Amino acid sequence: MTAPLGRLLTAMITPMTPGGDIDLDATKTLARALIASGTDGIVSTGSTGEAATLSEEETVAVWQATKEAVGADVAVIAGATNNDTRKSIRLAREAERLGLDGVLLTVPAYSKPPQAGLIRHFTAISEATSLPGILYNIPGRAALNMTTQTVVTLAQQVPNIVGIKEASGDLNQISAIINATQGVMHPGTPEGFRVWSGNDSDTLAVMALGGYGVVSVASHLVGRQIRAMIDASLAGRTAEAAAIHHSLMPLIDVLFIESNPIPVKYAVGLAGIPAGDCRLPLIAPSDAAQTLIRAELARHAIDLKAAVGV
After folding, report:
1. Which of 35, 145, 155, 220 is most buried (most C-beta within 10 Å)?
2. pTM value?
3. Where are the domains of the chain?
């Protein structure tokens, strides 16, 4: 039995030591602090977790440390897929062996398969594990958009594909996916097929369209406030939800002034959990970016600080 997949999932960074090795102690500290500051579950070693630079051994070690830190009742979703189907299957099976709770099914970068190739790729991975899968559409990094029809086909034909993280920014497409998958039910998912926003700036709009929640970067810092926005939206308190959205947007904007996860990794360090720099080819934030990040953090109540007692 896997842990339930919550509405607020954090796409967690991978903390590293000053020498550039993964820092498993900081990984555990951050995972626990995220749950204490409003996060329902964690996506581990996705793009925000610098998956492209991690070896398989490091990836598995991060999953194991994260799951040990949060326990059986909190979902940890494995960023186990890339543009190699066989490697993705191997990692998905390892995630299940370790007791993780789901797999992130990311549109492959670089290879640009046709839509039929996406269907076969995600079907093959899903058939290799009993874990629930969350599709991840991110055209800005993959240079390929997974179409509404492809999503609907996978939702209807693959029993353990239970939702999608939609980061296209195309609200028309997101609306069409929500509308077309209403009523698609899978075992263990009483809410049916779910759509999470993949962009913090889109969360409120996606919720208004009938979305389920968000896979967030900003929740590293303001998880309780994002949780409050989701709760207000679900309760029909639209003015309250909008006010929280507007208050958080300057912080969300500054967390993406350079390539993710450069800004958020720096910000987490400022909030009290040593996270280290990104691995090459990503680098530390520029001096100008550091100044902007520091200034914006000073304008907000940072939930992560409260969680770690800073």
Report:
1. 220
2. 0.95
3. 8-308
Q: For residue range 236-270, list pLDDT tens digits in order.
A: 999 999 999 999 999 999 999 999 999 999 999 99
Catalytic-labelled residue, pool 165, 212, 266, 305: 165
Buried b (16+ CB within 10 A) or exposed e, 263-289: bbbbbbbbbbbebbbbbeebeebeeeb
Tell me the per-residue pLDDT of 44-84, one tens digit each, with 9 for 90 and over.
Answer: 999 999 999 999 999 999 999 999 999 999 999 999 999 99
136 annotated active-site: yes
Residue type, 87: K
Active site residue 110: no
H or E segment to which residue 298 belongs: helix 287-298
- 251 neighbors 47 (Cβ within 8 angstroms): no
Torsion of CA 220, 107, 257, 226, to 10 degrees: -30
| Fold assignment, 8-308 | TIM Barrel (3.20.20)
Catalytic residue among 136, 265, 266, 305: 136
User: What's 160's DSSP letter?
Assistant: T
The residue ranges of DSSP E strands in the chain, in sequence order, are 8-11, 41-44, 75-78, 102-106, 133-137, 161-166, 194-197, 213-216
